[in-house]
Amino acid sequence: MSKIKIGILGATGIVGQRFVKLLENHPWFEVSALTGSDRNVGQTYTDVCQWVLPGNIPAYARAMTILPSEPGFDAQLAFSALPSNQARDVEQKLAKSGYAVCSNASTHRMWNDVPLLIPEVNPDHTALVAVQRRERGWKGFIVTNPNCTSTGLTIALRALHDAFTLKKVFVVSMQALSGAGYPGVASLDILDNVIPYISGEEEKVETEPRKMLGTLLNEKIDFLPIQISAHANRVAVSDGHMVCVSVEFAQRVSPEEATSVLAGFRAPAIAASLSSAPATVIEVTSAPDRPQPRRDRDVGNGMTTVVGRIRVDPIFHIKFVNFSHNTIRGAAGGAILNGELLVAQGLL
After folding, report:
1. φ, ψ for residue 242 (rounded to 5)?
2. Whole-model pTM above 0.90?
3. Which residues are known to be catalytic?
4. Tens of pLDDT, residues 317-332
5. CB 101 within 8 A of CB 109
6. Which of 119, 150, 183, 289 could serve as 146's disulfide partner, Cβ 3.0–4.6 Å?
């Protein structure tokens, strides 16, 4: 098939750069537009982008001219790396004008008619696209991927809930610096330190998995009726979010049973067939000191969720350590996978 033209909104930031890198030589998508702030419009990507990822700016993007983040650029699909305060107006204008928008921003995630998607978890929720178009009169639409901490966590919870039925979840996150963007957290704040607060993060982790694990019924999502309690912490790690998870189920579950279910989890067929889908959705490690950010962030090209230290919890039933790459699986890579799902479902 001919490649679908796509634009990257907010292309110069950390997540925007991930989009630029991950979309190089993509088999389904061709980057035809890069957008940025008003001060950068009209300049080349090389001139305005302070590249912070390993390697160099991909050759295809170097001479591309930065365009304004508004309707008019030549693309069918827009991957949005815009900050949430900008995404609200821009993404709605694009959807109204006929663009499909795969957003990494939090702005529209909890709207009743906007799918909050992980293809391995809830591909059927894209049925909300038809509702969104009808109710809002839009030619295009918006779908979102979840918060970077919620992503890997929800993938593991999907497997466990399907097998054992979740009741309560308690999580403590240790979140990488790249999640704060660039330049991000000041060095004097994070060196020799842990910051036990990330604005809005705990609320997202306590809410978003319940929507994604919910049931689509009568054109709306019935949230999964579980309780989630979250503590969010910023730590001095470059990439990769680690979450310590304790879970209570409807019945007692052994570590061996939980391990078998997590290791055996498979994506729905339509998700498994996508170009960016990892061969292994969840990798379970038996090493007593894994997962670790430096050693496990690139498993499955950054798209695999790594789970370890599965053991009995004396208060709940099971506890484990969950790890995923925050700017790949939890941001740009997740949004690209959502775009591929839209293609596979005939929505693009």
Report:
1. -105, 135
2. yes
3. 148, 241
4. 999 999 999 999 999 9
5. no
6. 150
